[in-house]
Design a protein that fits this description.
The protein has ten helices and six strands, in the order αααβββαβββαααααα. The chain is α/β, with parallel strands linked by helices. The chain has a six-stranded mixed beta sheet with strand order 1-2-3-4-6-5, with helices on both faces. A hairpin with a 6-residue loop joins β5 and β6.
Length: 288
């Protein structure tokens, strides 16, 4: 498997780091790795594979999470004209469904040039790699969505195709295509990546390439510093968002207290009625 790395350096390495993911899938020369991921997803959903993939937003060594302008982590084009967007999301909730639809729609719309006609539009395939559970009531880790007729299941068009890879739903009992199962295993490896790759490279040739590129990445000061900076900035952004949400919640509480105080001063309602209107507890209302 080649030279062992500095275990202190890779002890907490997370392959879902956006900087590393873009290096792995969007760097020039890594087209085979990207194609294998895409084709594994396609095979698992009984779709045709692609022969050639061209990355449209190639990896940039100077990338930073705060400067991210693209709507997708990886954007590629096939020889037959399909656009493929890949988004990696580590934290999220049900609203990501609408975000993924927005990303798909924006990509689909921008494919139409000013002098084109509607029939010139080409399919957009969205692949979302998620480190949280999104689809309720479905335990399968890979789900694929099309526009279908409700009774006959006839697919209206192949122009909309959205995949969700829910990493936390993956286990050894999932009935996935072997190649996609290997990708799930790799993406889920986190703090045990070395042990995971020891197994994967023996059974899947593309994983040997993945492991070699991983070695290059962590042994390059520039690349690993990019990873570290991206990880730091990522959690800084999360903390800022959390503080913003806390601020909004506190503002809502303050507004409810103002309303409760006004109602209380009017002496027209019981504390119980004020509690039902404002959502505050009776104890909170008594303290006003």
């Amino acid at each position: 498997m080649g030279k062992k790395l500095n275990t202190a350096k890779i002890k907490h390495f997370n392959p879902l780091n956006d900087y590393f993911m873009r290096y792995m899938f969007a760097k020039k020369g890594h087209e085979n790795i990207l194609k294998d991921l895409i084709n594994s997803v396609r095979i698992d959903s009984n779709q045709e594979t692609f022969e050639d993939i061209e990355v449209l937003n190639t990896f940039n060594l100077k990338e930073n999470v705060l400067d991210k302008e693209s709507i997708a982590d990886v954007k590629a084009k096939t020889k037959s004209g399909e656009t493929i967007i890949i988004e990696i999301q580590r934290i999220g909730n049900q609203s990501f469904i609408y975000r993924s639809l927005y990303y798909w729609a924006k990509t689909y719309f921008t494919n139409l040039k000013s002098k084109d006609i509607y029939s010139d539009l080409t399919p957009v395939i969205s692949i979302n790699i998620l480190d949280f559970n999104l689809i309720k009531g479905i335990e399968k880790p890979h789900s694929c969505y099309f526009i279908k007729e409700s009774e006959t299941n006839h697919i209206l068009t192949n122009h909309l195709e959205i995949h969700f890879l829910e990493l936390r739903k993956f286990n050894n009992n999932n009935n996935l295509y072997d190649g996609l199962s290997d990708w799930f295993t790799f993406l889920n490896s986190k703090d045990k990546l070395e042990d995971t790759m020891e197994i994967l490279v023996k059974k899947n040739p593309i994983m040997k390439e993945v492991y070699e590129e991983y070695n290059k990445f962590v042994n390059s000061n520039d690349l690993y510093n990019g990873y570290s900076n991206y990880e730091r900035d990522y959690f800084n952004v999360l903390m800022l968002n959390e503080e913003r949400i806390k601020g909004i919640k506190q503002g809502e509480i303050n507004k409810a207290k103002d309303i409760a105080l006004n109602l209380k001063n009017m002496n027209m309602m019981s504390n119980e009625d004020i509690s039902r209107i404002t959502g505050l507890s009776i104890d909170e209302i008594k303290k006003l």
